Amino acid sequence: MGTRSSDETALLIDRHENRSRTAGYNSIPGAAGSAGMLTAARMRRRSTIIVDKRLQLTWENIHVYVDSKDKGCCGGGKDKTTPATTHILRGVSGIAKSGTLLAIMGSSGAGKTTLLNTLTQRNCSQFDIEGAVKVNGQPWNRNISSMSAYIQQNDLFVEILTVREHLIFQASLRMDKHITRDNRMELVEEVINEMGLSKCADTRIGTPGRTTGISGGERKRLAFASELLTNPSLMFCDEPTSGLDSSMTHNVVASLKQLAAKGRTVVCTIHQPPSEVFAMFDQILLLAEGRVAYMGPSQNAVAFFHSAGYDCPKNFNPADFYIYTLAIQPGYEEECKAKVKDICDRYQQSDHCTAINNQLHHADGHMGLGLLENRSGGSPYKASWWQQFVALMWRCSVNAIRQPKIFTARLVQALVISLLVGLVYLQTAYDQKGIQDFNGVLFVMIIQNAMPAINAVVQTFPLELDIFKREHRNGMYRTDVYFICKVLAEMPISIILPLIYTSVVYWMVGLYPGWKQYLIAVGVTVLAANVSTAFGYVISASTSSLQTAVTLANLPLVPLILFGGFFINTKSVPVYFIWLEYISWFKYGNEVMAVNQWRDVTNITCSPSDGACAGTGMDVLRSLNYSEDNVIFDIGAMLGLMMGFLLLAFVLLLIRSYKSKS
Ligand SMILES: Nc1ncnc2c1ncn2[C@@H]1O[C@H](COP(=O)(O)OP(=O)(O)OP(=O)(O)O)[C@@H](O)[C@H]1O
Predict the structure, then answer these.
(1) What residues form the membrane-spanning segments (predicted)?
(2) Distance between Cα 320 and ligand 1 center (Å)
């Protein structure tokens, strides 16, 4: 991408503004009206994003071990002599300078990802690491983390947002509190230009293979753009071109090259790039069997391999040649390993290696690139609690509003089922047969509002867990803000649907004809639905698997419904199951509904053929072992269960967020 003139940039921004207004993106709280305040003059001030601080990354004599017997255990592999310990990286040293693009290459299993994880200090909990990683001569610290960006192989986006909306969301949470709204918007537009995303700025991101959206290359550039908002000095990209065709690969690497040209240090891993892409790398690091086979300028690698006795054939892609030469071919393991050892040994004695070692020793003198402040403590979040809340509520609402089919389906379900139930129990008579029917419909009302409520949320966290963990780890928002927003966004639906359902059933069936009783019935079904939703969140937060969540959701419901007071009289519950009664919100809801229905019924028809009759509503309540004295306790218990379930779900989510940081 060439650099646009400032006038061109200003023109582009003007176009963005017009389009944005029609697309409605500036309805985002905190973004409202700000795009409209941009002026071409202001845009002329900055046409490119220049990096604030130049950083030089060095790593020296890195050894990485993993305990193969206990891969999940932190700090495993203490005894390096046992065969159970795998030695993944063996004395890897190197340097990445500001303004350069370094590609880490090697065949599969060479150790590229392990090196990148070691350099970024991520996903290393199961590794035992030796050696030093430094930035401008200083050990990695939180301050350096905040100046670096790690673009992982799998892009994670909220598919329903447009490119511009995604960036505005990122800008509102990843930039310092003191940056004004106008400046954030300005930077978003600038980043869109810089990453060549103008064409698709108002296109929904989508999900490949599921919903239409932007292309694979645009997704990758959007991932870069998201990181660019924090103007990182150090950028790491894991396989940025995987799954892309050669033209998109070229495009993406050109973007990386451009980012480096602005003074950043860019390090990426890459698999067999086409030759014209390979030529774009300033430096390459070839890894083989966990050792360095070559590190230096990409154009000097051919000469090094020639000196080692391996000539790259003419018209052959040099990248393919290096990977092929350093690969361990099945069936020829011993020969290949000997060849790799020979090349790595030669590299260690080469001028390239000596030059790097010399630079590493000078790097401790900070290379004139400035000392880094080592700030510790303070909040890891750039945005305030309220800013996080507003941005997340906005995203949750957009998600819900742009997927009206989901709400419509739930509405239709509620209407159809309520009409069906209404017809089955239509205008039930207040006689001895009607008692069972009334009691049945009261229990059905609780259950039928509970089931959809649980099913609606049970997939919430497994579906969003990856994106939540990444954004939380990036310091975008706190777990409590995310959780509260999720709960609040679902709440209106958990109120509206039971309200509609109960309204239809109540009057069709002919439940107690009084507005007070009707409103209480609505309140109880709404409360029961919300306890169910909270219970759904507990299941949802307890697993990362969608299928497990769905299976687990229905498992505890059977006993809870069984001891809900309808199928078995509360006095007949076996003593060892009484505890289930106490946590069954179906039981509490059913008791309040029954008291509400029967308390004021003074006459129930009794014919001689009926035998023993319940003459009043109070008789019915006595036969069910229900008492109106329990109503306050029942409502309190349901509220308590709801709060308890929400708290438990939050704690489970908190544990997941802590685990993701380790
Ligand atoms: N947690 C682990 N436990 C045991 N072995 C591991 C672990 N992580 C990585 N390895 C091994 O270390 C070696 C290097 O893995 P790494 O993922 O870094 O390779 P890579 O070069 O990135 O491969 P690819 O290109 O296929 O992703 C591989 O042999 C791998 O099996």
Answers:
(1) 411-430, 442-461, 481-506, 518-539, 546-568, 631-655
(2) 20
